[in-house]
Amino acid sequence: MKTSKGTLSGREFYLTNKELTDTMKVFTSKWSTKIKGEDTYNTIYAPIESAIKKAHIQKEEIDYVLFIGGSSKSPYIQEALHNYFEDSEMMVPRDLQTHVSQGAAIHSLLYNGMAKNLIQPITSEPVIVITRDVLPKVILPAGTQIPCNTIIIDDLATSVEGQKVLEMPLCVGNTSKLLFNLKVEAPSPAGFPINTPIELIIKVDANKTMMVQASCMEKTCRTEALSPFSNQELSTKDRIVLKAERQANNEICENGGVASVQTLRELANAYVKAGKEFKAAETCEEMKEHYPQSASYNEIGVHYSNSGNTQKAIEFYRKAIEENPNNAYAYFNLGHSQKNLDKKAYKSNIEKACQIKCNYSIALYELSRIERSEGNETKADELLQKAYDIKLQEWKRNEFQTSDYSWFISMARDLGKNDIAREVEASQPRFDTEDYYNKENLTQTRNNLLTDNN
Question: Quick check: 242 and 136 in contact, CB under 8 A?
Fold first, then answer.
């Protein structure tokens, strides 16, 4: 099998009993499992507990557990559910897979042939919009039957005179799980007049896909197709990743298998914000392959390093140095990755980074640590003070990248400047739902607005 990373070949493909058992432990454990801090594998209990929660019952009230589908043949699955539903009877049909096909056929006949839908799903969580009001406004209540009739919300309005942009952040369940930020721009430079009515139109189809449209003074904004009612509870970060992945997949289908460089960059950034550094590395690799100037080997190495894949990181740092022998950042990152593997190479590469870029504060700080470990206290103190002074000025000029904060905090603490360390720590940017909308652009219910004006 030919892949972008070489040819994969093998005479036999199999799992040993131990490997199969270890794999199944991931899915039959009580808690979801993270692999290398990245991909989360849900247990079999996640959809079960979600269904029980939505049905408003206790698991002790369930009389029978019916096994359907090929995976239900697994003795690991059967044993786990037998232990989980202690008071229930297990029902295992002879042909588990045929039942799936028969059920789908019967449902299709009734739904498509007779316009009858035996399955009436409901929304498990409310959809809300963040406004200037004390509490967010519910626009689609929990328990709404799907599909539902068109819902019209007409009691929202602009909140200030001359408002240039209206923002209506849509969330599911609570304000920490952002779905989409609807933005409507004013039709003229004067902005919207205060208390101008806004109309929201919400539609949810049989596939649980939701569309929301906002209109104000004949200016309209629509969401993309949203899927807010998945069994898995998603954070704002997860939803941003899903949105970026959806955009990339759509472009791949439309453009002969390659997404645009802008879409791939947005996807990589979304992975970084969600802490999925390994996927960010793979996305940057794809960018480098299709758009060589859009990503660097050093960047790819950093993402692999952050995901815990040290050997892959070293591979790409070396590629970066081969491409540019004066790349101080690649030398530093290579040396730092070799810290616990090759002490000699570690020191040599850190020194090389300092030679190439004499004001490279992080490299100077790392070199001070090396000198201190070798007993050269005076030289270590000089390097530490120099690194701190450079970083302090960068901080005051507001030139910090995300990774700079932790380095500078460590420098300050090593020098006994704990007040500065606490001040820098407090100034660190933190991810928050509010990062994705401007509170000044929020709307407000018209009743509240009229009360405030009176």
Answer: no
Tens-digit pLDDT profile for residues 15-71: 899 999 988 988 888 876 665 545 667 788 888 887 887 677 888 999 999 998 888
Q: Which residue bears the tokens 């801090």? A: 37
pLDDT class of 453 with cuts at 50, 70, 90:
very low
User: Distance (Å, rounded) from C-alpha 169 to C-alpha 322?
Assistant: 46
Q: Which among 431, 433, 435 is positioned nearest to 171, based on CA atoms?
A: 433
User: Tokens representing 254?
Assistant: 């439309």
Report the alpha-carbon distance of residue 446 to residue 439 in Å, rounded: 17
* Calpha distance 206→107 (Å, rounded): 13
Residue the block writes with tokens 């599909």? 147
Q: Please compute the mean of the pLDDT values over residues 127-133 and round it to a whole number.
A: 90
Q: Are 211 and 222 in contact (CB under 8 A)?
A: yes
Measured between alpha carbons, how far is residue 356 from residues 342, 349, 379 in Å?
21, 11, 19
List, as one string, the DSSP characters of 331-348: HHHHHHHTTTT-HHHHHH
The whole-model pTM stands at 0.61
List residues bridging with 64 in a β-sheet: 89
- Quote the DSSP letter at residue 113: I
Q: What is d(CA 174, CA 195) in angstroms, rounded to the nearest whole number?
A: 26
Please give the DSSP secondary-structure letter assigned to residue 111: I
Beta strands in 186-254 (DSSP E): 197-204, 210-216, 219-222
Taking only the tens place, the pLDDT of each residue in 348-391 is 999 999 999 999 999 999 999 999 999 999 999 999 999 999 99
Q: How far apart are CA 191 and CA 193, in angstroms?
A: 7
**Long-range pairs, 8-13, Cβ under 8 A, ≥24:** none
The Cα–Cα gap between 366 and 30 comes to: 42
The residue among 300, 262, 256 whose CA lies nearest residue 279 is 300
- Rg of the chain over all Cα atoms, to the nearest angstrom: 28
- What pLDDT does residue 385 have? 96
Q: Which two structure tokens, joined as six digits, stand for 38?
A: 């990245």
